[in-house]
Amino acid sequence: MRIAVFSDVHSNKHALDKVLTDINKQQPDKVICLGDLVGYGPRPNEVIETIKDAKIQTIMGNYDEGVGYEKGDCGCAYVTTKEKLNGQMSVDWTTEQVTHQNKDYLIRLPDRVEYYVEDHRILFVHGSPRRINEYLYEDRPKESLSRMLKDLDVDVLVCGHTHMPYHRFVDNVQIINDGSVGKPKDGDARSCYVLLDIGDKVSVEFRRVKYPVLDVCKEIREKGLPEAFVEALINAQ
What is the spatial distance between Cα 127 and Cα 146, in angstroms, rounded to a whole number? Predict the structure, then answer.
């Protein structure tokens, strides 16, 4: 079975379109989105409607939760005062833009999906199995991850949220982060998603897809969103 997994689109319709085109070429048996459809970017409604029209199975991300429930908070781990101010502007603007119908779609998304394929138990989440906004970075200490995994009966854990792709083994469990479609943070401005080929073993392929970054940057500026969001796309940090 071949499964294409992506997440963290963040209202970047240009990137989503290019990624979906590439996914279709790979002819997966299933496509799963790990959430964060909205936030930061200029086209939240268009992204939601594209996902809905394509009938892609989607998990709720922390940004989807914050906007869908109109919490006024995305649950993001901002560090500096400037980041917090920009983040609040993004939450407020996106919440105002997203239609009631699309908010209703966001709040109905599940918090996880699990599949049993070829004797592999695969769990898909946005942040972590414990919290929608927990960051599972690649350099997280093994002991911390072992504590998280001990109560889970899974062979593969697939997550997003950090916007940084990786593939790691911990206690015979494969942890896979699919990167980000709309807001990469690993120094590569191209969109990233992952293909899982599941047979006796699980084969992992990270795919990078170019999209018109400057066109999205222009739209961000036209919407009056922070310049920092433009810089984040260009620098992929």
Answer: 16
For residue 58, give both structure tokens: 């989607």
User: Domain segments of the chain: what residues?
Assistant: 2-114+179-235
Neighbours of 155 (CB within 10 A): 16
Give the whole-angstrom CA distance, residue 47 versus residue 3.
Answer: 21
Question: pLDDT tens digits for 150-205?
Answer: 989 999 999 999 999 999 999 999 999 999 999 999 999 999 999 999 999 999 99
- CATH assignment, 2-114+179-235: 3.60.21.10
Put simply, whether the predicted model's pTM sits higher than 0.90 gets the answer yes
Do 153 and 121 touch, CB atoms closer than 8 A?
A: yes
| Cβ partners under 8 Å of residue 234, min gap 6 | 189, 213, 217
Q: What 3 state SS string does 14-53 have?
A: HHHHHHHHHHHHHCCCEEEECCCCCCCCCCHHHHHHHHHH
CB neighbours of residue 50 within 10 Å: 17
